[in-house]
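Chain A, query sequence.
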Amino acid sequence: MLLLQDPLPNVEKQVQALTNYLWSRHLPVEPEELQQRAAELEKKLLEKTASALTEKRLRGAVLSTLRKTTYHWQELSYDKGLSLVYMAARMDGGFAAVFRAFHEIKARIPKFQPQTLMDFGSGTGSVIWAAHSTWGQSLREYMCVDSSAAMLDLAEKLLKGGLESGEPYVPGVFFRQFLPVSPKVQFDVVVSAFSLSELPSKAHRSEVVQTLWRKTNRFLVLVENGTKAGHRLLMDARDLVLKGKEKCPLDPRPGFVFAPCPHELPCPQLTASKPLACSFAQAYHPIPFSWNKNPKEEKFSMVILARGSPEKAQRWPRITQPVLKRPRHVHCHLCCPDGQVQHAVITANKHGRDLYRCARVSSWGDLLPVVTPTQLAPSSTPDSPES
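Chain A, predicted structure.
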């Protein structure tokens, strides 16, 4: 309806272009890294050239090479038109990823009924809809923060069915352009979905993560693209919260990882010889535009941090890849409570019929109810995952 009111030229191509751009986007290069690259280039150039270059020519050659080889990060400025394109491109996939993260909390703590929620980088409001779908009338206040006034206007319109005025479908939603830094007011759930990657530097991201954690009463939910860059960014945020010491904390309760990691140890995916992104997939039905009718799958990374004692957490291994079902055995790739990854081949004969049946009906992203990794000793099944 909103796209019909404000028709955009070649909207399908714009949607595809923005989708591809956001997925392939890298984090901005930090000044320290840029200086290191410049020093290495300068050394290589001096070694290659037989005659000594003048300082001016050397500097020019280094700058020219850096311009060609360095990723040029640019901040996206969402005006009315680009906000509509973003809605068409990302609102449904964003909803699917955040809803999956909320489901993790809902499924494991069904009695948890949050009353307040803050969404940093709220965009078109997909977090509002996902939270309302998960907890319904329990939520009485939503604080949506986004630097783009056009995005906030669009989100408010969507809540009112595409109209300028009228009663919003979800009550209690408030909009503002700046993140409130005071820790005096906390929210039961604080969310940042696909927003940390839009910040211009690691220092800025760290500052925002610390502010979001100070404003968290129960759960901090962080979601990014399921890429290496998105996963690494979330692990940096995770470590910052777990290791951070605030000068004057008003809430002294420690933090622990609620999901997906079953531990607070270094991520084994990042420390592997070939680092991989820890990501998950959520199937969904997209907004039925003419070019967008088939079911899709959102690949995303997430981390949910909670206040309280880690002893209360459910420390079962997490399935980190699609489950491979074979005759009389199942292949599961697991992130275990001891901080290690394990490829378990589960059979009824070796591991018991209950665990075998459970593994067979489990999916990528599920927890496997095994207390210790020793229960998953390698099976004698000779088949490989490719068999």
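The longest helix spans residues 80-108. The radius of gyration is 24 Å.
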